[in-house]
Amino acid sequence: MRQNQALQFIKTNATLIALVVLSVALALADPTFSTARNLSNVARQVTIVGIVGVGMTMVILIAGIDLSVGSVVGVAAVVVTLLMQAGIAAWIAVPLTLVVVGGVIGMWNGFWIARYRIPPFIITLGMLTIARGVALTLSGGSSVAVADPRFASLGGGYIPPVPTLVILAVSAALYGTMLIRGLGERWKSGGRGKLDRLAAGAIIAAVGFALAVYVFGRGDGLPVPVAIFVIIAAAAIFVLGHTRFGRRLYALGGNEEAARLSGINVTRTKMIVYVTVSLLAALSGILLASRLNGASPNLGTMFELDAIAAVVIGGTSLAGGSGTIGGTIIGALIIGVLNNGMSLLGVSSFYQLIIKGLIISLAVWFDVLQKRK
Amino acid sequence: MSEVVLKMEQIVKEFPGVRALDNVNFEARAGEVLALVGENGAGKSTLMKVLGGVWPYPSYQGDIFIKGENRRFYTTREAEESGVAIIYQELNLIPELSVAENIFLDRQPTNRLGAIDWRKLNSDTQTLLDELGIRDFKPADQVKHLTVGKQQMVEIAKALSKRARILVLDEPTSALTDREVAELFRIIRKLKQDGVCMCYISHKMEEIKQIADRVVVLRDGQTIGDVTAITDITLDQIIARMVGRDIKDMFPAPARQRGEKILEVRNLEVDHPDLAGEKRVRKASFSAYRGEILGIAGLMGAGRTELVSAIFGACPDATHGEVLVAGNRIDIRSPADAIDHGIALLTEDRKAFGLFLGQSIAFNTTIASLPTISSRSIGVIDAARERALVEKYVAQLGVKTHDIDSIVGTLSGGNQQKVILGRWLNAGPKIFILDEPTRGIDIGAKVEIYKLLDRLAGEGVAIVMISSELPEVLGMSDRILVMREGAIVAEFTRKQATKEAIMEYATGARRTGQ
Q1: Cα distance from B319 to chain A (closest Cα, Å)?
Q2: How far is B381 from chain A (nearest CA, A)?
Q3: Strand, helix or coil for residue B267
Q4: B405 and A CB contact within 8 Å
Q5: Is B352 close to A250, i.e. CB distance below 8 A?
Q6: Quick one: CATH architecture of A37-156+225-372?
Q7: Going by CATH, does the domain composed of B4-243 fall within 3.10.20.30?
């Protein structure tokens, strides 16, 4: 019985265990990996794919796909830099780009997919090309530079260590009270089934906070894009797990016809999802442009694959209806840690591609294996 | 008398919670058409699947004798090899391939190089078609361009190409035009002369009189009476065998009070999804009242599901006519609209159209009424409220589970159905439509559902219940509509209704009057 439970724990948390094993192995192989500075870098690199991955999780959850996100990253980066070159202030240029690039492309995708039931694979594949073409056209094929310190702080800035520690302490306290409240409710209603899982969650969260203190509580502090990513991820976890909208996504992905016959507005829900993913991709593009102090029209090429990989490694089913944001974050971290570690160890970037591909295949194989049982 | 080529003895087939076949005995002879008749769910299709090896030995009990030899089929292929061919209602042809390719699928004649010998393939097919006297299509025609009737001919030719001596036809005329039926019958008569034994499954009485030599009735998984020559039995006697014994006290005693009219449907029509100009539902008009259970009887494919789906807004673009709720004409463009107007629909196929199999009982219960467990503004779900609500329904409906977080896919059919009932109860409907609410669930759960419906009616809900089980319709309904071929052809009060009368209208044996 006990052994069985342990096996079950390993199975349900396989990706998390893989991440831990991978990180420990890398830390042993190369001490640089576990320095706060390096881990902070990994976190910042992960945010770009992570933010897109959050949107991609929602899309894949409803049994869809969005291949255009990488190109949206590129267009958004080009548009925001061009706007600022034209003398528009950052605080206008950023939201304007979100709406014009993210909103419009998302609505276009959503319109055809939701209203006319065109397969998402096809329509977003088309948008992949269109958006890249737009990015190249607008930029004339060359890089666009921008020099605005306030804009640069969006992707490259830091929240200093002391405020970071305060923020961490407050969030830990908030999380703790939520946990205790949830625990109390469960205890009262006698639903003991999820108790172990709740305990596991508490341990994972504690380790996470400790790590965050170690990595961000010193040196430069917390990178702004990491903070943005954490806020987005937390919001998405809340929306998927605790709101009507989240329920609708799981319903839609699980059985679209049953969802419709349960009174769910399928068209509107799909529309919102495709707009959301485009908005998040545009945000990624803006953050990237900010960190690089400029945009190249080829920014974000192949990002869609990294985002999909993160989602799939994180255990979200491509058939729709099951998956979590938490899984996607772990998936994105695995990809990020792997990239970082392999570079530290001096693995050639050609090999990196092969290894990454193998890991994605492995993750899917594992998923299929689990489903069969 | 000719030789007995097929004998099925004491066949029993059980599914979890249901005994689909319960001691079936019959025999069929070479060169005869044996009609197998029975209500929906009587076990006809299951029986044929046992014969065809779809339910392989030993998933059933009993003996199958082919030409006197006891046979046990472990695969469909073994059944085919001993001369059994089954032509299912849903044809199994590959639309993109030609007639000849379909007939000789996986058995195409090849030349020395291993490539398909097209000339021989087509000439062999032509020979086969000539033998059957089929001139309507050629071996090279693509199957997708053929009508359903012609596709059926292809299936028959395919069966004969495998030297089938026992041919089972499962409701072969359900999608055919009159001309196609005539052509089918011509071929059946031809095969009879050639000594082929045919089992003809149908519930269309006129056809059976026309084409069958002998008839055997199946009811509740049992053969009722012996195999009888068609000349020795009247249609009434067949129907009497089909509907069988009286209703036991499974049903709550009706003490219901009819309230005000809550639903009125006027001239509702539903277009056929594939055939332009054809209708699935024709000029259907009826009313439902608070506190009343309205039963809708009819055979499968009579348009009952389409009628209620249309009312529920499932196919707004194909629906014409008027729906009034509490006297006001309403425009239902989606199921969401229908739910807003207090209509609920429990669908026929709970796995395909009802359940979210990978989700929990709680998820499945609250999905159609999320506002009842969430904040008005941004829809934050109150987990404690959800838990309390779902636990209430689980207790009230007697869903057997230890935890409302259990995955619905792991529950039995009866418990799954109760979860969906809970879903709609939580939506608080004024009009509750149920499409085959007790299909595929055990007797105990059925009785619980009957009690629940009676109670709901007592609370003033208008219940509209589609059922193919006549005892159920008769036992539960205050009023009964009978549908046939998309139209409401009869209406009975509880007092007037008899099984025989309903069956006569449903099968088209009687057409006029009320």
Answers
A1: 16
A2: 5
A3: strand
A4: yes
A5: no
A6: Orthogonal Bundle (1.10)
A7: no
